[in-house]
Write a structure and sequence with these properties.
heterodimer, A: 165 residues, alpha+beta, Rieske Iron-sulfur Protein, 33% strand, elongated, B: 156 residues, alpha/beta, five-stranded parallel sheet, 4 helices, 5 strands
Chain lengths: 165, 156
């Protein structure tokens, strides 16, 4: 007779078959699951944060800094230079604004209009924005400037995607 | 805006805001001085592309206008002027030819519309320096173009 701890032939076969079968099922299912969730994983890695400038160089006056990102345009991968207007606000927090005008996509400049020294100015159609990116009523843009996702690490400012305010 | 159907949709929605065409001029020749000829086309093209990026909402970057260096001045100039007429009749009053070919620096018919920039060989330059050189040139063009605009307020 079998003792308590012993495994009978029937049990042994059961265990091994379940084990092997489980492996086979997993081998078949895993790639399917991967295919299914692949788009989600891809989107997560869409754009990394890019080091742009040392935090110590950021002043209260907006300065223009450029950085490069990888861009995929269909099958064509290229490096694209992007710019950001970076400054420290009253609380000492860093703000990084996209220079792309929300009207038709020109590049805005800080204090470029002599009549409005403390605003962003778009040379194309005279669109203006406050320092914090708010569009000024009566000028063509209908939305505030986009803000870059930002992160400070080891004394450096990293910027990611630009998101609408 | 670029010469793409996607951008033309944007143009058609906002025609009243767009009044300027940017046309890079590219000389073509094969044989003698090949590299020099290419250089004279390469730089205006890069600068024009960057200019379009800065002024996307008010300009259209046209396909380059190319000509054989052996073509006669009269032929080429008449082609440029024909394009200018075509555009001004259809709602684009300003046209900017961007060229590095000294041949056009002193032509009366083109003086108002042509910006001549000295060709700069970018091939052996470091990235950062290259960006500066292009940036400077674009700034120069920006000033000329915005000056053209000063007397015309759009969309108001």
């Amino acid at each position: 007779m079998a003792k308590k701890d012993d495994v009978s032939r029937r049990q042994f076969l059961n265990y091994t078959l379940t084990g092997v079968g489980g492996f086979m099922a997993a081998g078949m299912l895993l790639p399917m699951v991967r295919f299914a969730i692949d788009p989600i994983m891809k989107e997560g890695a869409k754009q990394d944060m890019v080091p742009v400038v040392e935090v110590s160089k950021v002043t209260e006056k907006p300065q223009r800094f450029t950085f490069e990102i990888e861009q995929k345009d269909g099958w064509y991968e290229s490096k694209v230079t992007q710019a950001a207007w970076v400054y420290k606000d009253k609380n000492g927090d860093i703000v990084a604004l996209s220079p792309i005008c929300k009207h038709l996509g020109c590049t805005v400049d800080w204090a470029a209009s002599p009549a409005h020294p403390n605003q962003f100015y778009c040379p194309c159609h005279g669109g203006r924005y406050e320092k914090d990116g708010t569009n000024i009523k009566g000028t063509p843009p209908l939305a505030p400037l986009d803000v870059y996702k930002k992160e400070v690490k080891d004394g450096k400012l990293y910027l990611g995607q630009a998101v609408p305010q | 805006m670029k010469w793409r159907s996607e951008d033309m949709d944007l143009y058609l929605q906002s025609t009243e805001y767009v009044d300027t065409a940017i046309v890079p001029l590219i000389p073509i020749a094969w044989g003698n001085q090949l590299k020099h000829t290419v250089l004279k086309g390469e730089f205006p093209l890069i600068v024009s592309e960057e200019l379009e990026r800065q002024l996307k909402g008010r300009v259209v970057l046209f396909p380059t206008l190319s000509y054989l260096t052996s073509e006669s001045d009269v032929d080429i100039i008449s082609r440029l002027l024909a394009l200018k007429d075509e555009l001004s009749e259809n709602g684009i009053p300003h046209i900017v030819f961007v060229s590095s070919d000294a041949r056009w620096s002193d032509v009366d018919e083109l003086r108002a519309d042509l910006i001549n920039i000295p060709p700069v060989p970018l091939e052996h330059m470091e990235d950062e320096y290259r960006r500066d050189v292009i940036g400077e040139q674009v700034k120069h063009l920006l000033q000329i173009v915005t000056k053209k605009w000063q007397n015309t307020k759009l969309g108001e």
